[in-house]
Write a structure and sequence with these properties.
The structure is a homodimer. In chain A, 38% of the residues lie in helices and 23% in strands. Chain A has 11 helices and 12 strands. In chain A, helix 7 crosses helix 10 and helix 10 packs antiparallel against helix 11 (326-346). Chain A has 2 domains: 33-142, PurM-like, N-terminal domain (60s Ribosomal Protein L30, Chain: A, 2-Layer Sandwich); 158-346, PurM-like C-terminal domain (Phosphoribosyl-aminoimidazole Synthetase, Chain A, domain 2, Alpha-Beta Complex), CATH 3.90.650.10. The radius of gyration of chain A is 20 Å and the shape is globular. Chain A has helices spanning 7-16, 53-56, 63-80, 100-117, 167-177, 191-200, 211-222, 238-246, 273-282, 314-321, 326-346; strands spanning 35-39, 42-51, 84-94, 120-128, 133-142, 158-161, 201-206, 225-227, 264-268, 288-294, 299-303, 306-310. The interface between A and B is large, with 57 and 57 residues.
């Protein structure tokens, strides 16, 4: 790995670090998945997110999926701060002569997601462009209680996800390398689960960028590391297990890539662990336990027979170092795996 | 002109008309420059706007101008509904290796505009792309009183603009056809003027798309026409007069193009005209009187020696019919002018 710093965080600081921020804004740069402002004794919550790369690389081609994801991506961030979404504004760049069938399916994807999350299209802006590109801003609110931030976790806290992970990377692998695998993808933002999580969690982020990139951000903003005690094989969703088996990809790779699964990743203090798990069960879902927050900046994990310790940004940076070249990226993942196998076999 | 309908309005209805709208939203599609939702006895106001075409066509190349306009465009819409802006979210698409100098100037343009409008960057989203493209969402509020809509004008109402017009098209002409003209451009959203306007106006729109396109929208949503009693030469800003003289462009052409000047265009009922003008004067500015709202769907105007009557969307549609080809567009403007000269000379 070239450097120890998280390259995405560095990029965001370089581009957004010089902007003057709102004096009453709850979250500083990188501290939360959405922007939070006190408003009439409540919090107003806003988030802009886009579907650009996924369309350009043809990861998403189905217009219904593009519409669904344009809404789901920012709503997932609203869920990660414990807020309730209200409406969405769309910034669309579409080819001037996009066909009616494409447009109807795209609109249905948007409407379907809006109905699912009980939100409405408030407005937007449409421009013509050579290719499709979509950005969306969701507005929401927190009526009572505090917002969830990415910051706040302490060493010893338990790390959880709302569900099994890896579906996003499994989908990406099948799209780019082996379409015969037929992996489906239509994640839903975890608004329901967020209502319980916000009452227990010490911090939260969504896994829209994948597990390892999310851990890299959490490590950077909290100055901590993670001991993933649960073997990665037990964290993988059905789709990820399928790719793990058929493509013989090591477990960790399905949690490494930047195409995430839109689960929530959060921490709960040890003394609240039991109450939290009981309440989740009473609400009809079971959080997935990953491990513990530790005070040293590394990630320990178990992938196959290997026990690996890496820098928190090590895995996340592999994608940035590939400059978006998906074949170079897979190669660098494979090379990293080989290095770890050698290290593991040489360990005393 | 190919058809009588406004082509931009038709495009927006085609793309956005099928989305489910918020049940409490004040404005229907096309009815306001920004989205307005009742919120705790006030109104929450949101607007997404983008700087895409202006960058692609190289109308804007100066990064400081791009930053300034990315903020000014949506803030101008916030002014047009009589609201106060609070903060902005940026959706940036930037080349991965955009140089530091470009980035610093762009950031300074953003920060400069935010200071000018007393707002803050709340957050955003950055993606890498081959070319620069920016979309921004402004959030604002109306603490008391009603929002201004594009709808509400009645025949007999007086039509005003906050200042002289044509600077946007003069700038575009100089950029595309004669850079030696050295026309500057840095419009400011009319937030101060908006505070008086909102207490008097029956309707309002900004001229971000130019005067004739704004009139076309107002005509379509109010089912009215306009009698521009003031000769167009008296409506032109210094920059527009300069291009009118040096490039020998007819007056109306400087008000025709889609690159507007970000003034507010609004109507005041006849009986309030005097009070309104007195109050503006006491606030240190003079609105520009254009003419009257009429109940028949056409625009009458005086350009040079000509008295012209055209369909409200006639001038606005010329740009859409040119498919974004700026040379074809200038040619179609010239052809339209020739046709009107022939008609005028043949008139009894």
């Amino acid at each position: 790995m070239g450097t120890d710093n998280n390259k995405e965080v560095a990029m965001i600081r370089r581009i957004a670090g010089n902007f003057t921020r709102h004096p009453f804004q709850v979250n500083q740069l990188m501290e939360a998945d959405a922007e939070i402002i006190p408003y009439h004794g409540e919090y107003l919550v806003l988030k802009t997110d886009g579907v650009h790369e996924e369309i350009k690389t043809k990861l998403y081609e189905d217009p219904a999926l593009i519409g669904w994801m344009a809404v789901t991506a920012p709503v997932s961030d609203i869920a990660a701060v414990g807020a309730v979404p209200e409406g969405i504004l769309l910034s669309l760049q579409l080819p001037q002569n996009e066909n009616e069938d494409w447009l109807a399916k795209f609109q249905e994807g948007i409407n379907h997601a809006c109905r699912h999350y009980n939100i409405y299209v408030l407005g937007g802006d449409t421009n013509f462009s050579d290719s499709v590109s979509i950005s969306a801003t969701v507005v929401g609110h927190i009526k009572s209680g505090r917002p969830l931030l990415r910051t706040g976790m302490k060493p010893g806290d338990c790390l959880y996800a709302t569900s099994l992970l890896g579906a996003g990377n499994a989908f990406a692998y099948s799209r780019f390398f082996n379409q015969a695998l037929e992996i489906g993808f239509r994640p839903a933002a975890r608004l329901v689960e967020s209502k319980v999580i916000r009452r227990y969690a010490t911090s939260c982020i969504d896994t829209s960028d994948g597990l390892f990139p999310a851990l890299a951000v959490l490590s950077e903003v909290n100055i901590v590391g993670f001991d993933l005690q649960t073997p990665l094989i037990k964290l993988l969703s059905e789709e990820a297990i399928s790719v793990h088996r058929h493509a013989e990809l090591p477990e960790w790779m399905l949690l490494a890539g930047p195409h995430g699964e839109y689960e929530l990743l959060f921490t709960v203090a040890g003394e609240k662990q039991q109450d939290f798990e009981i309440e989740c069960k009473s609400e009809g879902w079971n959080p997935v336990y990953l491990g513990k927050v530790v005070d040293t900046p590394h990630i320990d994990f178990l992938s196959g027979p290997m026990k690996v310790r890496c820098h928190p940004s090590g895995v996340a940076n592999l994608f940035y170092e590939s400059n978006g070249d998906i074949f170079a990226y897979l190669e660098s993942l494979m090379q990293q795996h080989k290095n770890w196998v050698v290290e593991f076999n040489q360990a005393p």
